[in-house]
Amino acid sequence: MTLVLPAGDMLKKIQSDLNLTEGREQEDLSKLKEWLVLQPHLPKIDDDRLLAGFLYGSKNSMERCKKVIDLHYTVRGAAPEFFKNRDPKNADMQSCLESVYIVPMPKLTAEGARVTIHGLQDPAKSQFNASECMKLVFLTGDIRLREDICSGDVLIYDLSGSSLSHLAQLTLPLVRKFMICGQSAYPVRLREVHLVNAPSFLDKILALFKPLMKDKLADRIHIHADVAALQKFLSKDVLPKEYGGDAGEMKELHASWRTKLESYRDWFISQESVLVDEAKRPGGKPVTQDDLFGLDGSFRQLAVDLARVFISFFQGIPTAAPILRLIHIPGGATGKEVARPGRRSVALLRESPSPLHSLHSASAHNMASTLLVQPSGEISGKIYKELCEDKSAVPEKMKNIKEWLALQPHLPPFEDDDRILTFLRGCKHSSEKVKKKLDMYFSMRAAVPEFYAERDPQSESLQKVWTEVHMPPLPGLTAEGNRVIWMCSAQPELNISSASTAMKLALMIGDLRLKLEEHGVAGDVYVLDAAHATAQQFAKFTPAIIRKFLISVQEAYPVRLRQVHVININPLVDVIFNFVKPLLKEKIKNRIHFHSKMDTFYKIVPAEMCPTEYGGQGGSLKDISGNWKKTVEENRQWFLDQETVKADETRRPGKQMNYDELFGASGSFRKLNID
Fold it and tell me: Of 291, 340, 402, 469, whose CB count within 10 A is highest?
């Protein structure tokens, strides 16, 4: 089979969508090759067509392309079930090709997208093997990387003949590996997903899954009772005869693509040894299977949630007993145990009037093992309304901000969509406020080296801070959709060796939240435990360092501070508050509250989400802090790279920023210092 490539106006449109300009491809390929030569852990890659495929799929973003390539060759060593024994003529793959079809259509849609059809050939004799089918998906993807140019992918899954026995093979670890490899290690641009010949219960399953998906993905999934409905979305020239089209018969298309796969046999076999050498990875810390696929952080909770979704649906089906026995809940419970009478499923829990948005508030272990629970359902809708988020307007705003950034000679390149979106949400989608915040964000990185330089998470100074204080964001959300950050001593007696290093770590956690708050939150609630506050410790927080920290947080981060709660107060707290008060904005002063007893505090932050050390059911603070420590350390290379990502004042249009004016002891601050 030959994949028809775009030409004429369609090619120009696709090139525009992918940010490609005439004559730029060779220059970008040369830059990419130069970068590859400097990566000792990556294999030698001289295949221009393959590299061009990575660039196209990354919309010609060099930084995104580098990340995808690194992960592409990393997962090849970490997921042998997909990337080993890939001879298309071996017995397992031949059996797979006899039982299923995964075939790209020869022609492109009018929008320049490639349609790929997945389905069972003969359910009656099908020897379905889930991991082998996933391997076939990646074999097809590898060919398309070398041969295809398109604006994105349209996936059609024909579910005729599918059954619970097929579903039982899709274990959570296998699905997780497949999703990570497909989404992060290949430059895929998903346009639409069509589920055709769907069983009657599929819409119920999808309704349960949708809260777990990103809205963008959920909106692109369409369910059809038969193939006729496809023609409302796709023209006949990109559909086989069996699907109401005129692109040829499915049997012939499959045979043609199978021939194509087998023609790549030697290349597939040679590529099995083309992968990373973790011993040579810069930074000295190899990427492990647990780093890539381990059930930690948000995915552990997602796994719990998915399992409970399956249980919630299947426990009412008499024939589904084998499925329930196969479901494993991370943490040790089985599907049968969780599904016993009297135990609420996640679907029911989300409909319950609970002040805490958690996936299983009764389980402290599950809560502590989750990094950040993301809002969904009514809370998500409430947050989006409060943040003035119009989903249809977001892409245009993102585009405008990135265009503005590109025109600022003093600011570094910045194409991190997730973080830009967090800035937009924190600024209630005011583009002008975002621009000011981003300017200050990069300016502070140059102005305050005590916070933004030497940020190696494995350094002795930062490792020491973890043993001295806890400052993690808690996993759950309040009923208002606020994130709670808990700050207290990690030892029986507070002993902070360096105030600036502790503040540095707090900002590092803040930098990760810019990426990890996928759906946005209404705001932040800070809890400060004053039980161990002493005059000796307070003296380490000089007026100068406090001022720099507050300016950094208030002016350079998209923080929406809701409340500050000081618990376990003592007489020194009044002195401390009066000291800091002149440095705060008026509205922030009014949001600070003091509690001598926890029962008044629980009226605002429910006990279900508070740490167990404080009488709550939200998990151990030590474990929660430990999860954040692990996450910070896993992002070590990012922090090291970011030390050079800052403003260059010599290139700022107009007047350069004066750091003395920014942080100098003037006005009320000078008076406070003298007093």
Answer: 469
Q: Which two tokens stand for residue 245?
A: 């089209």
Residue 232 CB burial class (10 angstroms; 0-12, 13-18, ≥19)? exposed
Is 80 exceeded by the pLDDT of residue 284? no
Round to whole Å and give the CA distance between 637 and 43: 20
In angstroms, the CA 143 to CA 361 distance is 46
Confirm if 168 and 206 have CB atoms less than 8 A apart.
no
Q: Copy the structure tokens of residue 409.
A: 């000679």
Crossing angle, helix 130-147 and helix 172-184, to 10 degrees?
A: 0
Q: Are strands 221-223 and 469-470 parallel, antiparallel or unpaired?
A: unpaired
Q: Which amino acid is at 245?
A: G
Would you give the DSSP letter of residue 328? Answer: B
655: how many CB neighbours lie within 10 A of its CB?
Answer: 7
Are 441 and 642 in contact by the 8 Å Cβ rule? The answer is: no
- At 553 the three-state DSSP class reads helix
- Assigned CATH for 353-675: 3.40.525.10
- Please check whether the two domains, 1-281 and 353-675, share a CATH topology: yes
How high is the pLDDT of residue 357? 33
Q: Measured between alpha carbons, how far is 361 from 268 in angstroms, rounded to an integer?
A: 48
In terms of Cβ atoms closer than 10 Å to its own Cβ (0-12, 13-18, 19+), residue 495 is: middle
d(CA 639, CA 474): 22
CATH 3.40.525.10 fits 1-281, yes or no: yes
Sign of the Cα pseudo-torsion (352, 353, 359, 362, in order): negative
Instruction: Note the pLDDT tens digit of each residue in 230-259.
Output: 989 999 999 999 999 999 999 999 999 999
Alpha-carbon dihedral sign for residues 562, 568, 574, 579: negative
> Dihedral, CA atoms, 179, 181, 185, 189, nearest 10 degrees?
-30
The residue with greater pLDDT, 666 or 13, is 13
How do the domains of the chain map onto residue ranges? 1-281, 353-675
